[in-house]
Protein: dTTP/UTP pyrophosphatase
Organism: Caldalkalibacillus uzonensis
Amino acid sequence: MTVKTIPPIILASSSPRRKELLNSLGLAYHIHPSQAEETFDPRNSPEMVVQKLAHQKASDVARHYEQGLVIGADTIVVLNGEVLGKPKDESEAFQMLSRLQGETHTVYSGLAVIDADSGKECVGCQGTKVLMRPMGADEIKAYIATGEPMDKAGSYAIQGLGATLVDKIEGDYFTVVGMPVALLARFLHQFGINVLTVARQS
């Protein structure tokens, strides 16, 4: 039986959590972090913003290749219509977490897969609601002191110590981590890659 050759897969991100998610699917890939400037129109909907950012990253990397599937992803945290990005410093992290505590916010993860050869692309996103438990100032400062919040949208990581801050979620956990895995599998299937078959062969 002839085994179909899988095209090269390029992850346009150096995010450890996204690497772990791709590893969990048994996919062979290499990393080429995007250098695209992450700009967006704040008047656009969160869904449009996060899809545009993911597409910017994938497009920036795809132009360097003649073949291969480039995966771009981006995650934003939205509270009462306001996008909360990565904190600039500990003071901003404290402000974000103080606003999020006791409240429900939405995490959106955008995903783009671009075929560098044909230019075919799939772009989409998913959103998940997250309820963060009430916290006092001392607890927030203790979490910030771990260093975990400093490179995370919304100043927390649900896959790390930030899990202790979350009461419940409504939606896809992996969207909060930073890459909606089921959506990625659907996109890859459109390029002829069945992740279940790949897992069985590995």
The beta strands are 9-11, 30-31, 69-79, 82-84, 104-115, 121-132, 166-170. The chain has one domain: 9-201. The chain is about 35% helix and 25% strand.
